């Protein structure tokens, strides 16, 4: 069999990373970039603990980069940029010793002590957390620190260019500000040589030839002159964004929907400085369980570590891949579906035609080389098994699984074994505390007795489909409004929850005799919450 050329297939691929990559290809149709590579960038503000949205931006940009590499021979780089020279504006709600951190308000994040005591600064601590996850996931990137870039002189030439075009730049920004802010605004934020704070003060004089700005110290009223280079000033972030695009030569950067106006403004400044703004799109925001935007400082969204406790990283990547322009809830209850969706896509991949594979999220998640992994048991089913078995460890789960899948062991089914561990953790933390059993009504008692009797007559070795049909027939024989009401009753009475698995598959996994015993315990009025 001839292996098809990736480029020939990529030209017609419709997955959103390819649509994005084609715009970057068009950017250099006439000639390659002078710097010798196409630069993809992601930005990160380390003012709070990294959250999954940050990971999502790196993952999505990586997928566009990979698509570009199938369409073009131009080398690429990905910079993960941290704006860690930003001043600490507020103390996050989710850090230790917040009162001590409050003493450093206004200081650059890389000058604020690390409240966790593990790094040289708060900015460095948050950077380390981000990098640890990105490295663990296997992203290929270069990490850049704003503090390092400012202080090393890497931004100096562009900073002086902004000083030269000061009036043009400020005239772009001022119409977007209120009257009070407009009166004091300057793109340059001096770093006080007296106390190290990033100052938002009016600039009273500029010396383009010398490359300096002057301001009055807000505490002493002393006129102070500082260079705009070498880390003695940083820029207001919208100007900073444009400066970074120009100084680094950024070709592609995506951002959240809430930054659409900022992208437009920074693009105008970029053009004033003589450069083309990068390509990119605006993705929708992630929401918490209440429908509110997740925030690093509030800590109201899932942490990366939390997702990885309950599910493999492949499921997180899939959740980020699907529908990037659609607002999505990012809370614990989305995890099980994401795991099973990943299993569905990865299992479909091997049987798909080459062109179809490039539309499969698994192709993008694994850079065109998805592993041959599968699970004979869905994650949703594992969660319900853990719930009914009151599983506190993987061993209890494998006792059921090995009977359901003959010869299956943790060694022969390593991915399933990972899922089992995640399922136990999810059950203990998220399901067990919320379980609420109820007693059956008189009509439901009759149906449950019928179910136990019917299961007792099921043929030996009946599979999940046959058992599902049996359960259907039981439900039809009783006065439920519809089959959905029947299954909801089963879940609430037997599992302590309002939703559950395909019940026949659950019976096959848990065991027919075990299910009969469970039903009879419910009929006897036993407390199923006690196991």
Topology:
Elements: H1 6-10, H2 16-27, E1 38-44, H3 52-71, E2 76-82, H4 98-102, H5 122-137, E3 142-145, H6 146-152, H7 156-164, H8 166-173, H9 179-184, E4 188-190, E5 205-207, E6 212-216, E7 223-227, E8 233-235, H10 237-248, E9 255-256, H11 260-272, E10 282-283, E11 286-287, H12 304-310, H13 313-321, E12 328-329, H14 335-349, H15 354-357, H16 361-365, H17 379-389, H18 394-404, H19 414-431, H20 442-456, H21 464-476, H22 483-495, H23 503-510, H24 512-523
Parallel strand pairs: 1-2, 2-3, 9-10, 11-12
Antiparallel strand pairs: 4-8, 5-6, 6-7
Helix pairs in contact: 2-3, 7-10, 8-11, 10-11, 13-14, 17-19, 17-23, 20-21, 20-24, 21-23
Strand order of the largest sheet: 1-2-3
Shape: elongated
Please compute the radius of gyration using only Cα atoms.
29 Å
The top level CATH class name of the domain at 442-530: Mainly Alpha
Multimerization state: single chain
Distance linking N and C termini:
55 Å
The CATH topology assignment of the domain at 442-530 is Arc Repressor Mutant, subunit A
Structural class: mainly alpha
Number of helices: 24
Strand content: 5-15%
Helix content: 40-55%
Arithmetic mean pLDDT: 92
Looking at the overall shape, the CATH architecture of the domain at 442-530 is Orthogonal Bundle
Low-confidence stretches: none
Q: Report the strand count.
A: 12
Describe the largest sheet. 3 strands, parallel
